[in-house]
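dumping this here so i dont lose it
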């Protein structure tokens, strides 16, 4: 079962004012949105995964119907261009950057290391490039860099070498399914940990296919543009690459004099929160935009 990370504490940091409008840039299964609404907020939420958007429309029909929730199928990288967002006064923004448990177990899109399926990994079906395309197009050096930089994979070079060797044998027929890639990684990796051997490579490929680093940079900047003076931006990251981008963004706003970082060190899960295995790597950072609140 999916359990929203920092459900209460993230919304606490937003200091919800009843009747004001808040932006949930990563709706997922709607945990943070529902919590904000329960405290009297109106919420504009978005998710660019059509599966979660459609599920949200059904599961939150009452909230949508009475106007407390506005749900959009959109990428947060362009949130400042959405008419619904531009027309509102946004009192706070939340980003929960964790990939949903259901997504990671979705074999139909090649996201799962356990369930075989087409090696696709696109969260937005309008995107042109799949994970199979990435494996076919990048050089051995480029693959190793992606696996190490985005996935933190320590055996990146050996895995990249094995992938290139396999595609030389089989051409475009290689790695059509996630199961083929998992098998190659399992045969190659020497290190054994609690993580599945293919986890970090799959993370890196998903990030490349969905351009997650660029989207996050653009999304944070867009959210800052629409955030009202005095409003707060809360970001929850689950690996060092994302947390580093959030940290750099907040430091820049503080250096420019437009924001005040409220979390000197990232907030990490307490003992109760850490019982949720998804929360163990989570880091939450908060910044407040300078200026008087409305």
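and the seq i came up w/
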């Amino acid at each position: 079962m999916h359990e929203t990370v920092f459900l209460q504490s993230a919304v606490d940091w937003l200091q919800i004012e009843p009747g004001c409008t808040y932006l949930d840039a990563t709706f997922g299964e709607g945990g943070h949105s529902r919590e904000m609404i329960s405290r009297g907020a109106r919420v504009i939420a978005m998710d660019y995964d059509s599966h979660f958007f459609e599920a949200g429309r059904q599961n939150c029909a009452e909230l949508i119907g009475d106007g407390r929730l506005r749900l959009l199928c959109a990428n947060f990288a362009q949130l400042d261009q959405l008419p619904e967002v531009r027309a509102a006064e946004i009192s706070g923004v939340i980003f929960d950057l964790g990939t949903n448990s259901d997504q990671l177990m979705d074999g139909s899109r090649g996201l799962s290391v356990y369930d075989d399926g087409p090696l696709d990994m696109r969260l937005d079906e309008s995107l042109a490039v799949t994970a199979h395309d990435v494996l076919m197009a990048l050089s051995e050096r480029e693959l190793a860099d992606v696996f190490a930089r985005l996935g933190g994979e320590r055996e990146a070079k050996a895995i990249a070498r094995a992938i290139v060797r396999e595609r030389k044998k089989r051409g475009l027929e290689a790695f059509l399914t996630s199961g083929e890639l998992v098998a190659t990684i399992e045969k190659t990796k020497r290190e054994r940990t609690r993580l599945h051997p293919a986890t970090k490579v799959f993370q890196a490929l998903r990030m490349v296919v969905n351009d997650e680093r660029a989207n996050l940079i653009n999304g944070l900047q867009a959210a800052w543009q629409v955030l009202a003076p005095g409003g707060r931006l809360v970001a929850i990251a689950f690996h060092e690459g994302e947390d580093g981008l959030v940290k750099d963004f907040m430091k820049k706003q503080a250096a420019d004099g437009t924001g005040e970082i409220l979390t000197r060190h990232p907030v990490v899960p307490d003992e109760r929160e850490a019982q949720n295995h998804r929360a163990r790597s989570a880091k939450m950072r908060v910044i407040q935009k300078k200026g008087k609140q409305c």
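Residues 121 and 201 are 12 Å apart (CA to CA).
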